[in-house]
Amino acid sequence: MDATQAVILTIITASTPLLLAAIGELVTERSGVLNLGVEGMMVMGAVCGFAAAYTTGNPYIGILAGVLGGVALSFFFAILTQTLATNQVATGLALTLLGLGLSGLIGESFVGLPGVKLQQLSIPFLSTIPFIGPILFGQDILVYTSIALIFGTTYVLFKTRIGLIIRSVGDNHNSAHALGYNVIAVRYACIMFGGACSGLSGAYLSLAYTPQWIENMTAGRGWVALALVVFSTWLPKRLAIGAYLFGAVWIMGLYVQALGFGIPSQFLSSLPYVVTIIALVIISGNKTLTRVNTPACIGQTFVPDR
Amino acid sequence: MGDHVSTKGGTAATTDYLLEARGITKMFGDLAANDDVTLKLAPGEIHALLGENGAGKSTLVKIIYGSLQPTAGSLHWLGQEVSIANPAAARNLGIGMVFQHFSLFEALNVVENIALALPKDTDIKDLSQKISDVSKEYGLPLEPTALVADLSVGERQRIEIVRCLLQEPRLLIMDEPTAVLTPQEADQLFLTLERLAKEGCAVLYISHRLDEVKRLCHDATILRMGKVVGQVDPQKETAASLARLMVGADVHAINANREHKPGETLLKLNRLSQDADGPFGVSLVDINLDVKAGEVVAIAGVAGNGQSELFDAISGERTSGTAGAVQIDARDSGLDTITQRRRNGAGFVPEERLGHGAVPGLSLSENIVLTRHSDDAGLSKSGFINRESAIAINERITRDYDVRKGKPDPEARSLSGGNLQKFVVGRELDRKPKVLVINQPTWGVDAGAAALIRQAMIDLALAGSAVLVISQDLDEIFEIADRIAVISRGQLSEAFPAGDLTLEKIGLLMAGAHEKKNPDATGTNEKVSA
After folding, report:
1. Number of continuous H segments (helices) and E segments (strands) in chain A
2. Rounded to 5, what percent of chain A is helix, strand, coil?
């Protein structure tokens, strides 16, 4: 395994959790809901995933548990913001704090235990092709899931009736309601899809990225995912570019630091943020496209007439 | 259906009604928005639903369309009692509705917008073709792939109508459809509606434009304070008798009789040009206008043609490029802030009264401080607010302009639309501004309040101020204006004396007859000739 291959593999590993969490939030925001609790749902996914995998010895049960952990927390968010019409920003922030606290409590007895690692696929012949084999055919299942989700959400959002309904609810919930769509139900579903993706992302961290449980192990990735959604102008493909760019600059920074060029580490660790923001601002230069893709109702509470 | 075709002037000669609403009552808290309302619609009939704002028209149609559930009473479709739980159920019965505030999605294109209103099994791929067919058949041109945000209000309404037509409705509800159209567009709409009625479709037509109702409708139901106060044949009524039924009293005609003797120019727009603010704004192109002391000048136009941009440029919400582009009382004010312009004697009343003209959560006296802190009313001294004088001014304004309120100094949001409008207009008029610029002064205001506001504007002009009114309501414009200019796509026509203009001519101007085909090309020509 040469150095380039190693770098690429690390970049994919670093980018995947961002991509998973961000694609879920993208769908949630497309339906007009701003869920700032991504970090909390991720960390819940991480602890549930780790605990289930450790107890059963099966990483796939861990993945399932991680998804359920994220969904549970997002369901709570949906009840509060949709049924009880609470403020989405405040509820989302509270959700992050709740997730961080709850995960610490659940994970207390799992700190320092050896985790169950999610295995990479090993396809005979294909995975052993020099250089590209391990990159294209030797990843774990969640990496492929994240890529499938990019294409899947693009297709669903822009080619199907369900996607059209999601976008319409996010663009103008009053009109969608007037046409007879159940705005609240659509938003419930999108919020829980976002929770599932965040849970998946958390499970990736505690099962594949670093197979162990450490408190607050998401380390702010949920916030990066949230920012990526905005800078991608709510387009899944741009989101993928952003996530991989962020991962790439981050990992490069680590390598540069290890090689000791004398560049201050603070500068290197801030670089991914700077580069990603600049790149995404440049590609979203078309104002009309940005306006059209921005969910106009984002963050607004919908209360139907009775 | 052919048997039920009614002729204009008579009610439909049929005993079996398409839709009957019997004893509909809808309570919002203690308020009866509808009180024992009965309405009968026959196939092929164009039925007007008349009433002032707040009379309960919207509530009634929302109940028919399934958006609201009645507190009491029943709906009968073709003689069978039905419960219309939601708009989808209404559409399944064959009820289509064109909303006053369109239920369109700006970020989606025409096909997507229409697809959302059609049943689940509709094939979206064939839809573009169907849309083209129907829009051609009924003379409602539409580009299926166009983004709604890029379309004019008239085009948006066509989407709503085509959307209903594709569902082959048996009852079409139109909520104030002509409020946003040019007279020519309105004529086209009437032809479409008459054709639909001939084909057997019933039309429930909500409007407060009585001449339209007289021209188009076979029958009329009049609501006042939630109750049916009349079931009349509009052909046998006069506009005045209909108005009397709606309001419940004679509407005072305003006293506009005065000679047009303009004095010096107090507001001058001098080659005002401005780029659009964002992709869905309108650019202003080379706008010239003089408003003189003692006159009321009105700017007509279909909504979304640059009225709000023009207002923002004059009021200073967006400063224009050069100081000379806007002159207030002979001072170059193009770069001044709003406060500087106010100090210079100007008053501004924006279109949106709640949220723009007044802060919803602040009391009326606090809202007065917001626009008058810097003038000579003595409301603020060394940064401290003088509450007593704010409250005193509030008392004066609410008394002089008949603002009806519960508490002495309520929150702005607690006032009804008409009363809040009287307040925001009165707040500026109380300053006796030299220049008053007012955008949509009587939008959504009942007839009594509208008459008061119009009279106040005329009185201000009589006292020697310059008044510029931006309005979509042509009746209002003809009632109060000395001169009329028309804005379309950010270009302003010459201001013609009101007596020289006919509705037809205004309609042509609203459709853009005065526009320079290509502003850039004209600019080049000028250079060449110079």
Report:
1. 13, 0
2. 75, 0, 25
Structure token pair of residue A130:
């020099």
Q: What are phi and psi of B427, to 5 degrees?
A: -60, -40
Residue of B nearest to A296 (CA): B107
Rg of chain A on CA atoms, in Å: 19
Shortest CA gap A248–chain B (Å): 33
Encoding tokens for residue A179?
Answer: 């046409």
Q: What is the CATH number of the domain that holds A214?
A: 1.10.3470
Residue A279 within any structural domain of the chain:
yes
User: Which structural domain, as residue segments, surrounds residue A233?
Assistant: 3-122+130-293
Interface with B, mutate which of A29, A161, A168, A179 (most B CBs under 10 A): A179
Q: Report the range out of A177-181, B115-119, B205-209, B271-275 with the highest average pLDDT.
A: B271-275
Taking every pair of Cα atoms in chain A, the longest distance, rounded to a whole number of angstroms, is: 66
Pair B286, B491: CB distance under 8 Å: yes
**Is residue B130 within 8 Å of residue B95, measured between CB atoms?**
no
The more confident residue out of B212 and B524 is: B212
Cα-based torsion angle of the residue sequence B406, B408, B413, B414 in order, rounded to the nearest 10 degrees: -10
Q: Which two tokens stand for residue A120?
A: 């990479």
Determine contact, residues B484/B496, Cβ cutoff 8 Å.
yes
Residue A19 is assigned to a structural domain of this protein: yes
Give bridge partners of residue B475 from the DSSP assignment.
Answer: none
Q: Give pairs for A270-273: CB < 8 Å, separation 24+.
A: A272/A245, A272/A246, A272/A247, A273/A224, A273/A246
Residue A304 lies in a domain: no
Residues in chain A with pLDDT values less than 50: none
* Nearest CB to A291; choose among B62, B103, B280: B280
Least confident of B247-256, B337-346, B363-372: B247-256
**Minimal Cα–Cα distance from B93 to chain A, Å?**
14
CA B32 to CA B39: how far, in whole Å? 17
φ/ψ bin of B9: left (φ > 0), alpha (ψ from -120 to 50), beta (otherwise): left
